[in-house]
TrEMBL record:
Alphabetized Gene3D superfamilies for the sequence: Tetratricopeptide repeat domain
Keyword Repeat assigned: yes
PPR repeats: 51-85, 86-120, 121-155, 156-190, 191-225, 226-260, 261-295, 296-330, 331-365, 366-400
Name of this protein: Putative tetratricopeptide-like helical domain-containing protein
Classification lineage: Eukaryota, Viridiplantae, Streptophyta, Embryophyta, Tracheophyta
Species whose genome carries this gene: Rosa chinensis
Domain of life: Eukaryota
């Protein structure tokens, strides 16, 4: 990065060539010590009138720094000095507003842009589509896609990537397939991002076969799979209990010289814990340490849940202590794992002790906390205490679910009397009882 002194020497030279504004604007964009007001004032002293390019450079600099308010001030100043903003100016501001989640303002500015007959670029449309997708508003996102087509602006691969990704996120797989087909019909070549979105999407929907076919297609086209690609494949193989294939893929990644990251390790550890292969899960934790990949609370929560499933709650507790020694802060999931483990064994005193510990450090009990405790109490034939917990959870604004009521109905001796009291039991819950 050039020093201020270097830039000043260049400014002196450039001033003789009437090109000072170019360097000064670049200094501002690169965050080298200077200010927009200094820059504009310096230009006026030299008798150089700032152009739309000058203002765009400064606005870009403000937006890069996350100072959209400053960019808006420059925007007003340029109009006040008779310099008309162009489509690039509007695009910069719209992007900056979207990053600050000011979508309504961004949309309003976009409409003003259209009112003065400026044609937005595909990049500006993609910016709006991206942020409306992230906001879960696919209708608005598709609306902008349709509008750009009407104006003769061809959607790009990025446009399709954004929409396909959000369709997968919402579980609308068949519509995502149609978008892929539409891309192919328009002669667009999927890029690495497209393939990663598709592989991740099919993995989320449980279609391991389709995901593997796409991985092979990537390779055949010379597109190198990324860590995200492999992580998605490991995830779906793990969910399908195909752990040997997941391990084989992991070993293949290592042979290729790809360093696994935290997310990949967590996906593989989760699969082994879910399938009861705790020895392999802990060997992966040791591999993480060797590769200097630091575990997080997700890693330890997964291991704790695996231990608790095997009714080894004491060992799960040791993992909680190990987390703290490593400087990893346990979260409510960590404590819920222990509460659930103790409750499954019927060790309700220990379960309530963990809940007390959880409350003492500021974590409020969740639905999972109450369900685990109620199930444990009912298993121990302590229905009255379970009913008390039900009232407590409702008073805290936590809505019981089917699991709560299943546990209560199984654990309460006089169900008819309980139903007559109407302790927050709906008609559907009564029907559930009679089905049982």
């Amino acid at each position: 990065m050039p020093r201020t002194k270097t830039c000043n020497e260049l400014l002196s030279l450039f001033s003789k060539l009437n090109r000072t504004w170019v360097l000064y604007a670049e200094m501002f964009r690169l965050k080298i010590k200077s200010s927009a007001n200094e820059f504009l004032g310096f230009m006026e002293i030299l008798g150089i009138k700032p152009t739309v390019v000058t203002y765009n450079t400064i606005i870009h600099g403000f937006c890069l720094r996350g100072r959209v308010g400053g960019a808006q001030m420059i925007f007003s100043a340029m109009k006040g000095r008779g310099v008309q903003p162009d489509s690039y100016t509007y695009g910069l501001l719209i992007n900056g507003m979207c990053k600050e989640r000011r979508l309504d303002e961004a949309s309003g500015l976009f409409d003003k842009m259209l009112e003065i007959w400026l044609l937005p670029s595909a990049v500006t449309y993609n910016t709006l589509i991206d942020h409306y997708c992230n906001n879960g508003d696919l209708n608005r996102a598709f609306g902008y896609r349709d509008e750009m087509v009407k104006k003769g602006i061809m959607p790009t691969v990025s446009t399709y990537n954004l929409l396909i990704h959000e369709l997968f996120m919402e579980g609308r797989v068949s519509e995502a397939d149609c978008m892929v087909q539409e891309m192919e019909e328009k002669g667009m070549v999927p890029d690495a991002i497209t393939y990663n979105i598709l592989i991740n999407g099919y993995c989320r929907s449980g279609n391991a076969k389709k995901a593997s076919i796409l991985r092979d297609e990537m390779l055949s086209k010379g597109i190198e799979p990324t860590k995200e690609t492999y992580t998605s494949l490991i995830y779906v193989l793990s969910k399908r209990k195909r752990m040997k294939e997941a391990d084989d893929l992991f070993e293949k990644i290592l042979r290729q010289g790809v360093l696994p990251d935290l997310v990949m390790f967590n996906a593989l550890i989760d699969g082994h814990c879910a399938n009861g292969s705790m020895e392999r899960a802990f060997s992966l934790l040791r591999e993480m340490d060797k590769m200097n990949v630091h575990p997080d609370e997700v890693t330890y929560n997964t291991l704790m849940q695996g231990r608790c499933r095997a009714r080894k709650v004491e060992e799960a507790r040791k993992l909680l202590d190990e987390m703290k020694r490593r400087g990893i802060k346990p979260d409510y999931i960590s404590y819920n794992a222990l509460i659930s483990g103790h409750s499954k064994r019927g060790d309700m005193n220990d379960a309530f002790k963990v809940r007390g510990e959880m409350l003492s450090i500021g974590f409020n009990p969740t639905l999972l906390t109450y369900n685990a405790l109620i199930k444990g109490l009912c298993k121990n034939q302590e229905g009255d205490l379970a009913q008390g917990l039900l009232k407590d959870m409702v008073s805290r604004g936590i809505t019981p679910d089917d699991s709560t009521y299943y546990s209560l109905i199984e654990g309460i001796e006089n169900v008819e009397e309980f139903l007559r009291k109407g302790d927050s039991l709906s008609l559907s819950r009564c029907v559930l009882y009679f089905q049982l």
